[in-house]
Amino acid sequence: MPSSPSATSVPRRQKLAELISDDLKRTIIRDTLAEGDRLPNEKALMALYGCAKGTVREALMILEVEGLITLKTGPNGGAILNAPSMEPASRMLRSFLHFKTLSGGQVYQLRRLLEVEMAVSVVGLLSEEDFATLEHNINECTCHRLDDEDQRRQRFLEIEFHHVLARACPNPLLSFMCQFLNDLLHDLVVIKKAYLPERKQFDQANQHYHDGLITALREQDTERVRQLMTEHMRDAEHHMTALEMEMADQLLVTPEHLKTNH
Which residues form the HTH gntR-type domain (predicted)? Predict the structure, then answer.
């Protein structure tokens, strides 16, 4: 006799508010609504979906949490469409992955591929403002940091260099994925304290590759950009792997070991 399916294998039935929010998303796409446009008011939505005010409000709150609308009160209030940022989606995905055993190597398994394609895609698209931002970023990374906070700031600046490139990427999916992976690295820096110990060689390598990338991007040398970013990602992965091994060894030091050594 076949066993009954476990509770975890049965798909959860969506609540009515979730179904309404999904349908409103389809309406936004179908009617090509833009930022600043309004959704129908609560009374119209109640009539359209044949549901109570509380259900409509719950559906609108789902869209608000996802960053798709802003709810305003008053005579000119209602649900106003936003152009959502990537932050809510990135934050939710990162929260999901925090419950997994994620290593720097797994991040770089994707980053080695995507960063290269992203860098190539922005050749000829960067503005003078973009180049000024990239050059300022490098100037802030002096590679002469001493204390923990400065080391942490330097790691964040190095990640931000790649964010600037990703934001200029013409492929929105590739742009999102690269920024998401950068955000994951940002989280790993905080959680694993990946700015400790001080790593002068890593600092200098990052500055070398970033300098070279700016030059190649200014010259619109696509092959050089591809080569530099490929080497940069391999080098960064090597340093990340070495760092994680070093941090893991430190975690193996127990109070008993400390007592023995004193």
Answer: 14-83
Residue 66 belongs to domain spanning: 14-81
Confidence of residue 200 (pLDDT cuts 50, 70, 90): confident
What is this structure's pTM? 0.71
**What is the count of structural domains for the chain?**
2
Distance, CA of 3 to CA of 5 (rounded, Å): 6
C-alpha distances (whole Å) from 101 to each of 93, 105, 182, 246 are 14, 11, 17, 18
| pLDDT, tens only, 50-59 | 999 999 999 9
Q: Which stretch of DSSP H or E encloses residue 70?
A: strand 69-72
pLDDT digits (tens, 9 = 90+) for 174-197: 999 999 999 988 887 766 555 445
Residues 6+ apart with CB under 8 A from 57: 42
CATH number reported for the structural domain that contains residue 103 in this entry = 1.20.120.530
The residue out of 81, 96, 120 marking a domain boundary is 81
